[in-house]
Every structure is written in structure tokens, then in C-alpha cells.
Amino acid sequence: MDQPDIGEQLKKIPVEPLLPIEKKLIGWSLGTGLVLLIALALLNRYLS
Amino acid sequence: MAEASNASPEAGTPGGEDLLALWLGLLVFVLALTSAAGLDLVGWVVTTSVWTDPAKALAPVSKAYGFLGGVGAALATYAALLVALTLGAAWLKIEPGRFALRFTVVFLLAYLSWIAGSYANLAVSTPGDLQKFGIGWSLKLTSEGGYIVALLVGLVIANGFPGLAQWLQEAIRPELYIKVAIVILGGFIAITAAEKFSLASSLLLRGIAAIVEAYLIYWAVVYFVARKWFGFSREWAAPLASGISICGVSAAIATGGAIRARPAVPILVSSLVVIFAVVEVLILPFAAQAFLSHEPLVAGAWLGLSVKTDGAAVASGAIAESLILANAAAEGINYQKGWILGTTATVKVFIDVFIGVWAFLLAYIWTNYINVQASDKARTREIWERFPKFIIGYLLTFMIVLLMAWGATPEHVAKIKSAINQANVFRVIFFVLTFFSIGVLSNFRKLWQEGIGKLVAVYALSLFGFIIWVGLLISWIFFAGVKPPLAV
Known about the structure:
The complex is a heterodimer. Chain A is mainly α. In chain A, 71% of the residues lie in helices and 0% in strands. Chain A is built from 2 helices and no strands. The longest helix of chain A is centred in the last third of the chain and has 28 residues, at 20-47. The radius of gyration of chain A is 20 Å and the shape is elongated. By secondary structure, chain B is mostly helical. Chain B has one domain (3-479). Helix content of chain B is 72%, strand content 1%. Chain B contains 19 helices and 2 strands. In chain B, strands 1-2 form a two-stranded antiparallel sheet. In chain B, helix 3 packs across helix 6 (145-160) and helix 11 runs antiparallel to helix 12. The interface between A and B is large, with 34 and 46 residues.
């Protein structure tokens, strides 16, 4: 399958500042992820 | 996942390879399982032993088919796979004649690599076996060192004989092969899990942690790095984050579809994912052997989290298992086979399960908050469309074997185990085909294309600067001190 040229495509990338919804997505993902991981680690310790 | 999609022709049927893998895996599983009821329908499948005399390398897995001899069993196996896969190829709208011819070459080269890997000087791992085979040294790769040989042969073809690699394309389908193998693997893991329930429950908990890690931690960090530090647009950053964090190619493509990126973007990201996955296969299992030999399940989970693409991840688990078991055997500890690989595969499968949900979530955010002018709305059907169907096969074979073995008499469990071992021989063959195919797809020259530096930098920084270390830390928290059961 013919593939487009990566270099060409990368040169065309427009500048886009982070939107508030993106910051929210990143923040909520990290926050929820950390809390869940700590909870799972504690559960793992409790079960083992 | 879906390595083939960037280098081999797309299947004509939507989700075709996924469904085909599901049915092929279940077919092998059901046929093998009948041997628990006294039938022996697939006992002719060829298995390879460690050898110094090539005449003794091959044999049918069941003694009932001993009359076939090793070569007869190999031919029967080839013929069965040829028929099944060519029918599948036709269903995928690939020209059957072209596929059959190319699959013949792929099978021949891949299985010869596997046989070569079982040569005693490569495979033997214990002093007792050195004595048994009358040899003075060995690379101690175990019989599964054949995977490395198959990968290397594939790499030589990709980088030394690109014309041949191109010609083989129709039959180079690592995603199809690995998905069939994973469906079969479900039953194998279940029979092992039924024997050691506490360890299995620990695996499940770790699987849930893997989902949290990949989707919520890795994705967010990689997306941030790509957007903020490297200035990628949303159209590039989201597929890139999914490709690096979740499950390689299929996650990149699902994300690209979900945010309505131009088709070229996830395809370009995917080609990078595939190349990096092979670099990881060549490095990480050996790092695991060097630094995690005494924590085998930490190594297995770490590889499942760090190596992107299903094929490469499971391949890494298989290599790491062979290397770590060989180390342990040399110290007089004989762990049961399958636990390191099972840990890697389980972690990977858990991550795969949520690709559809994640794609739906991103589609919802993009259509409602980012591309608000777009008329198309996120559809619930997207979850099902993006769901990797072969996972259903894995869960089915896992549940069926677990239920069959639950509370069964030891005699009955032994029969199920024997049946699953027959299926497992097919699983090994599909693994070998996967390793060889991954090698053939890995043309390292792509990494040196002009202008690709920024993309490579994000990938390298995220993977080697963050993902593998966080994966190691979390794997350590959940698996440190947990050992595979000892072989009886």
C-alpha cells in the first residue's frame, strides 16, 4: 500500500494551543488514574 | 495491533481479520477439546523437540498418529493451515491463489526457523540436558529460542531482500496470526489458572491496573507531551498518544476514526508504532532477563505494558519467558511454563478490551467540545465497531476451560490439560508465523525518512523516558515477590 510521505505531512501541522477541554481531559485522566492505581495497589496488598 | 494494516493490503471485509481470527481460534480450540472426550481429531499436528539428529526433531503431538512420522505430521499441519487460511483469505477478498503460494513460503521459512531454534546448541538450558545431548555448550535459549530465529530471518528478508518481502505481503499477517494464537491462549491460561487460583486472581487485578495505567496515565502524559512540548496538532497528538500508550496500530486507527482525523495520520503513526515495537522486542526481553530474572511475573507484566502492538508484546513475553526460565533452570529452579507469557498476554488483552470505549469517549469529546461544527455525533455503535472481536474468543476459551476444570476430578483435569496441550501446539505455530511476519514488516529504513525526527522524538521520549519506567514501577508494586508455580 502506498503511504503518504511522513516528512511532508509533518511540515503541514498547524499551530493549535491547548483548549480548556483538553486541559480538563488531561487533568481528569491523570487524577482519576492516580487515585484508581493507589486504590488497586491497596486492594492488592490487602488481598495478598 | 494490526501491524499488517500499514504494510499489507487491507482486508476487504470490515473487521475481517478480527472475526477470522476469532473463528479460526475457536475451531482449533473445539477440535482439540474433543480429545478430552476420547476423540483425537488434531493429534496429527506437528511438534518440535530439541534435537541434534534432525530425523528426531519432528513428531505428531499424539502417539495415535505416530504412523505419520515427523515429516508427515509437518505436511498434514501445513495442509490444514493452508486450507483454513486460504479459505479465510478468500473471505477477506484476498486472491486465494496468490495467498496460498505466499503462505507456503511463509510457513516453510517460519517453521524451518523454529526447527533451527530447537537445535540443541541453541536451545538446551540445563547441565543435565547438555549431558543428555552430548554437547559442551549452549546459548540456553530453550526451544522457544526459535521465535528469535524466526524474527531474525524475517528482519533479514525485510532489510536485505525488500523485493521478497514485498512479494510475500499477502501472507504477512502478524495480526491475524497473533489473534488466533491469543484465542487459543485463553484456554491454556485457564487450565493453569484453575490449578493456581490465587495467582490467577492477582493477574486479574493487575489487568485492571493495566487499563488504568494505559488509558488514564500514559495517554494523558503522551498527549500533553506531544501537544505542549512538540507542538503537534490535535489531529496528530491523539492518534499518537493512543498508538504509544494503548495498543499500537488499532488504537491509533480507532482514535483517528473517532476524532475524524485524515486517514493518512493514523497510518503514518502506525508505521512508526510497528518499527518501535520491533526495536522493543529486540531489547526489552533481554533487559528483563538481565534485571528481572528473579521477578518473572514483574517482567511479564512490564512487557505487556511497555511493548506496543499485540504481536510484539506477546512475542516479547515468549522470548522473556524462554530466557528467564533458562536462567532459573540453570539455578535449579523449574518454573511452570506459560506464566510469564500468560501475564504479558493477560495485561495486553485487558488493555485491548477498552479500545472501543476509549474511542467512543474521544469521539464524544471531539464532536461535542472540539469539532463542534461537525454534524456527525459519536455513536454508541462505535464501541462495538471498534471492539477487537478476537477478545471474545479469548474470554470464551478462558471461561469454558475454567468452568470445565472447576471442581473436576484430577483425572478429568488431566484430560482437559492434554487436550489444551494439543491446541497449544497450534498456538506455538501461530506464534512462529507472527514472529516471522513482524520481522518481514520491519524495514528500519523508515526510521531514517526525512522529517520524521519530531515524531520519533515524541515516541522515543514517551516510551523510553516514561512508559517503560512507570510500567516497571507499577508491575513491581503488584507482582514483586509473586512467583510462577514450580513445574511438577
